Structures are given as C-alpha cells and as structure tokens.
Write a sequence for this structure.
C-alpha cells in the first residue's frame, strides 16, 4: 500500500511529533512509504530519505506537498512540474494543535484519504480541555471541578475563579499537551504567574482543582476487527507534583524503568471500563491514551485527559499483542474500513428547492 506518514506542524509539540514519526516509520517498512513533514509554518513537504529526529533540525526540503479536495492523491512540486501519487491511507503522527486537533483530519477527510486517527469532531473536542471536560460530565465520567478563564477577563474574574476552585489548583492552557504551560498553584502569587504563562500559549485556560495525594494511571484503547480493545494499566512516575515535559521526554527513557506496567489496583477494571466507555461515547478511532488521576485519600479516580494521537502512538501498551508491523497494519486497516463505511452513506438529496420557488425567483430577475 502507498502510505503517507504525516507529522510535525505549527505546534509546541512539533519536536515530539518528529520523534513519534521516526519511531513509527520502521513499522511501515512493508509499505511504499511517503514521509510528509509539516514545518513550523504549516507548510507540508515530501521528504526523500530516512532522517533521524536530530537531522530534522537541518532539513532543507525542496518538494512542497499537498492534497486536493475530492482527490486521494498526494501532489508534490518537482521543479517546474507537479506530480501526483495515489495514497491508500495516511498514518498521522501529529501532537498538539494544527494536526492532532482535527485540522489535518479535515484536510484528509475532504481529500478522501483514510487516516489513522479519531475524526474531525472527536479530535477537536479531545484537544480542547474545556470542551472535553464538558463532554465527560455529559456522559457521566468523573472529572475534577474546574472553570474557564479567558485572557480578556479582568482581575476580579480571576480572583472569583480562584476562590471558587480553591487552592491548591492547576492552571492549564485549553489546547496544549505534553504538560507544556501547566502549573500547580498554592497561593495567589503563583496563580498570577501561572496565568501569565498559560495565556502566552492560549487565550483560554482551565483552572482546575488539584489533588494533594494522588497518582496517575494511563490506559490505551484501539479498534481491531470491529472490537474496542482496552490495554492493561500503566502507572508513570513523576519527579514533581505533576508529570512535566522533562519527565515525559527529557528523562523519558530513564523514567521508563520506574514505570509500572502492567499496573494492578482495586480500581483496575473500573478504570478500563471507563476508557472503553470514553472511546465508544466520544466516537473515537485509531489508538488513544486516556490519563486518569487516583486520589489516595478518597480512593476515587478522575479522568484527566484523552490523547487521540499519543506519543509513540502508545505502542508500548500493545507490544505483547502486536509486532510493530501488525500494530501499524491494524491501524491502517481500521482507517480503511472506517472510510469505506462512510463512503456508503448518502451525501446527496434531490430537494427540488432550486427548481422551485428560488429557481423561479431567479428566472424573473
């Protein structure tokens, strides 16, 4: 199959996306692979060759790449000429806005290319922490109390939110991942600084209750042969109060030895059931990772967020079930089946409206 691996993008998680793409590429060795790199200005390029993550710092790509609506072809400029390649499916390795948030999915949806990710609406909702929290509340999934602040809100509004949520609290940009821009606040001074940081990344932030004695648990879900599969649990480690960017990526390999996987606890089956429920009710597809918080004091758990394109595509949750090639092929097959099912729907309706009153009015004018 002709597969487009698409990654990068205008996002604070651009570099992490590159790492994921480089990890995924070897699993696609049985396919005719086309690497599409989206630079920090959202320009898409066709890369020729296999580059390491570090080599991406020095790329000088020459072939602009793009899709056209209504055509499942990848077009690229080769000098003065434009050439095209029919694409069977796209493997997405974006993280963050301008890729994971439904925008890239929309491009591929309009082009008619199957893609290994949640759809446009689901991706957008899960990228936006405020919308996601509202959806969770709507389907009866436990979440911590939180409120929205906008950059235009005055000091009185900010104080009211802090008073209602109560310290300690967490400030999160609405549309960011990898723990970027997130701060734990214990007093008003820390809150003010955290808002300044968060508003530099987004004009909307989530101010959320912070647990004081808790641990994190992650769970992955994916579709295979029409069935939602749910992984075992993982308990990651954190150096500080929350998992930081450094915990996840700078110290990532060192920390992995201290991660508990599979992790067992009394809440295991309830958490796995919730991950399955979220996957189904939010109409997710591809592979996702849902992050939970467990309060040691009360024994309750809360959903923190859903990553529709998790780092490394969350393969390490599934390595006992699939080889890397099988894992990639399962995602591609599911994407193709989803596209095929959608193509069978009716998208035309002969309303006769233009032949009726509107048509007559236009003829008279």
């Amino acid at each position: 199959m002709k597969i487009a691996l698409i990654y990068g993008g205008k996002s604070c998680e651009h570099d992490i996306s590159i790492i994921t793409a480089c990890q995924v590429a070897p699993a696609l060795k049985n396919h005719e692979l086309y690497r599409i790199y989206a630079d920090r200005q959202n320009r898409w390029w066709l890369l020729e060759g296999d580059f390491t993550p570090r080599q991406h710092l020095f790329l000088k790509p020459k072939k602009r790449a793009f899709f056209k609506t209504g055509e499942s072809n990848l077009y690229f400029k080769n000098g003065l000429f434009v050439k095209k390649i029919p694409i069977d499916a796209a493997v997405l390795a974006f993280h963050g806005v301008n890729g994971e948030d439904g925008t890239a999915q929309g491009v591929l949806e309009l082009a008619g290319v199957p893609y290994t990710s949640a759809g446009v609406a689901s991706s957008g909702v899960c990228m936006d922490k405020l919308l996601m929290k509202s959806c969770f509340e709507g389907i009866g999934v436990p979440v911590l109390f939180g409120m929205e602040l906008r950059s235009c809100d005055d000091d009185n509004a900010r104080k009211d939110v802090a008073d209602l949520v109560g310290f300690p609290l967490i400030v999160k940009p609405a549309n960011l991942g990898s723990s970027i821009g997130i701060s734990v606040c214990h007093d008003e001074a820390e809150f003010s600084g955290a808002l300044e940081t968060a508003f530099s990344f987004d004009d909307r932030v989530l101010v959320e209750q912070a647990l004081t004695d808790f641990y994190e648990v992650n769970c992955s879900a994916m579709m295979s042969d029409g069935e939602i599969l749910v992984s075992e649990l993982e308990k990651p480690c954190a150096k500080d109060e929350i998992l930081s960017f450094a915990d996840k990526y700078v110290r990532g390999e060192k920390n992995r030895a201290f991660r508990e996987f599979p992790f067992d606890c009394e809440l295991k089956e309830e958490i796995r059931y919730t991950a399955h429920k979220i996957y189904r009710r939010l109409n997710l597809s591809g592979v996702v990772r849902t992050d939970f918080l467990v309060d040691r004091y009360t024994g309750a758990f809360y959903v923190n967020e859903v990553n529709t394109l998790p780092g490394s595509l969350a393969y390490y949750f599934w390595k006992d079930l699939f080889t890397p090639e099988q894992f990639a092929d399962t995602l591609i097959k599911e994407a193709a089946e989803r596209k095929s099912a959608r193509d069978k729907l009716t998208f035309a309706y002969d309303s006769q409206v233009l032949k009726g009153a509107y048509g007559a009015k236009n003829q008279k004018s």
Notes: The radius of gyration is 22 Å.
